[in-house]
Automatic annotation (TrEMBL):
Top-level taxonomic group: Bacteria
Organism, scientific name: Lederbergia wuyishanensis
Name of this chain's protein: Phage portal protein
Amino acid sequence: MITLEEMKDELKKELPRFYEGIKDFQELIKVEGKELANLNNLIDDAVDQLFIETSTWGLARWEKVFGIITDESKPLDQRRSFVKSKIRGAGVTNVELVKEVAESWYNGEVEVIEEPSKVSIKFNSNYGVPSNLPDVQSALREILPAHLFVEFLYKYFLIGEIHNVKTLAEMETLTLDKFAGGA
């Protein structure tokens, strides 16, 4: 984002020095600088919409292209993840693809365990159930064959992992959903 002052400085560089003392040209630079800075920022914003990672108001267009129903109540990062999973989900389904799609939603490391009748998705990076689990499930259901059972495995704290390992202050920062059997 370019500021008015930066744009005015750029405009002044383009003019001969003898214009510096003319009040009318200073006012002209101020007015044109404001308009050009606004235009420059609008162009930058429009370019941001061309990329999933930076798209904001243009994300609905991406969702439309991939047949996703826009839900503006969801955070932008979750909506972007859904679009990315749709892009990655094209083609033959294999362990690598399932891993890529799950990780695009989870924003962490996922292990995929393949068995003849089921696929297990193990979330390794964070403790507890991912906040956007329904979205992860939906994205995986779209790429996995219907006959496969999908199992989700979560990482929780166990008493043995924290007893004599974490301080009381560290324990106070942990929420119950990070523990096995926690709410």
